[in-house]
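User: Can you fold this complex?
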Amino acid sequence: MSDLPRSEPSIEDIILSAAHHVRPSRDLRPRTIEAARKHCQDRRSEQTLGGLVLAIMLLLLLTNSPVSQYSEQLRARREIPRAAEIERLALQYSHDRQVGAHFALSEAFNRLRLSQAVRFGQPMQKRAWAANQLSRH
Amino acid sequence: MEQSDTFSERVKTHAARLCESSPAAITGLYDLTAQRLVRYAATITRHQDDAEDAVQTTLVKIAGQPRLLQSSNQPWAYLLRMVRNEALAILRRRRHWHLVQNLTDLITWRSTDQLEGEDRNEAVWQALRDLPRLQSEVVVLKIWEEMTFQQISQVLEITPSTAASRYRYAIEKLGQKLRPLASEEVSHV
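Assistant: Here's the predicted assembly.
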């Protein structure tokens, strides 16, 4: 052993020796693990719910979008009125106005064309004229 | 610095396990870091309960998003910064700010063979609590976490020279309080 006087520990040494003085409380570990487990479960539920909401929103967007409206218009354009329908209109017109069957058929056909012009979005002036014609009838 | 880097690697490994497996892997990260995180947070909040709340909140966040930690270049510094932010948030929320004058809030190791060191350790903690927070943080990171001033500057978001000067001031003040303890130890031998 050396006879030299023992040197003073440095301030850093003294501080270092207190490094493990404080410890976490006993319940911190289970508390943290339980909270982490719950947090992860909640996150998973939120993600699932978020996915569902997104899917519903996409579905709503697709069904109400301009694309779907345009496709609806296209479908309407392709729809050819049946002869029976025109005939029924002609008979009704003939009965209401007391006119001949030929004139009533021609008029029913004319009205059908006018209503199509309104529905299919003709230019503004033409549409106004068609609407006016329809109201006159 | 080397030890700090090694510890950082271990933190990263645990974060990777967390990404791969399940939230249950948080136990490994907890066992590795909790004591160090609590003592660091306690120097900021100056109350153990608040420090534990900060640590718990941080680890729960990490369990939810482990990639935050895994993708960091300095995972240990990143974790310390997260705890620091949580601890500061708790301080802001605590409306009735009260300084704990004694150390009764602290939970400490007490073993019969370390009783003589108990007084000295308490004196160290008391001296650290008497320092301004910004200075005590630097001391804890430098001495207990064995970080370089460069690494400390990343945790505290200050320049390395600021960290160094805060450390110098802090050691000077701590020296005034703890020097008698050092002298006592020598005289007891």
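Chain B is about 75% helix and 0% strand. Chain B touches chain A through 46 residues (CB under 8 Å).
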